[in-house]
Amino acid sequence: MRKYLLIIFLAWFAFSCGYRAIGSFKDNEIVALSIPLISSDEDGRLRDNLAVLVASTRKYKYTSFNSRYQLLVKIESDETEHIGYMWDRDSIVGERLNKLYPSEGRRSVVAKVIIIDTITNKDLIEPFTVTVNSDFDFVNPTSIKNIEFTDTSQQKQTSLQYSLGQLDSQEGSSVEVAHPLFDKLAEKIIRFLL
Q: Which of 52, 163, 190, 192 has the most Cβ atoms closer than 10 angstroms to its Cβ?
């Protein structure tokens, strides 16, 4: 008997908080969502991707105006760590030095997501977090051997102009990896909402 009372109490408690199961709208009802600006999304790529993906679902439609329901995304952490190393080289003669230099990184983003009802100011779904990461390579800009080569006409060329981004500095590579990283984040958020 206590088990039944506990189950009834827990169900009552969960629904009295205003949480709804994802998809608990009326059948065939398409819910209009607006997406406010997201901090740490400087170029708006994450918000744009979310808008496109929301509009492509049959469950939600995107509106740029303030709608009753808002999809709120808060970037809780955005960190980069070193995951690969190479031997450092002398900047003049190119000899290998007895120290390691980072050459690979991983950028990880954790976002908290919620849909709120702006009229009642209640959470429509229980908040959830999404984590994505992406790996990238970069070069040691202090060593000329890493950024220079001799072409077929014996002219010295810098490899950075031919690299298409994979031979960028650590800072540049971390910025470039943000685009595919935020693309993955948007896809994961929408997958969870469906």
A: 190
150: β partners: 156
How far, in Å, CA of 104 to CA of 86, rounded? 9
Angle between helices 178-193 and 45-55 (to 10 degrees): 30
- DSSP string covering 58-106, please? SSEEE-SS--SEEEEEEEEEEEEEEEEEEEEE-TTT-PEEEEEEEEEEE
Instruction: Compute the radius of gyration of the chain from its Cα atoms.
Output: 24
What the block records as the tokens of 6 is 């506990």
Q: What confidence tens digit (pLDDT) does each residue in 161-194 have?
A: 444 445 566 777 777 888 899 999 999 999 998 8
Nearest one of 104, 128, 100 to 177, comparing CA atoms: 104
Q: Name which of 73, 146, 139 is nearest 111 in CA terms.
A: 73
Contacts of 167 (CB under 8 A, 6+ apart): 137, 138, 139, 146, 147, 159, 160
Total residues belonging to the chain: 194
Render 118-140 in DSSP notation, one character per residue.
TTTTEESS--EEEEEEEEEE---
Which domains does the chain possess? 2-193 (3.30.160.150)
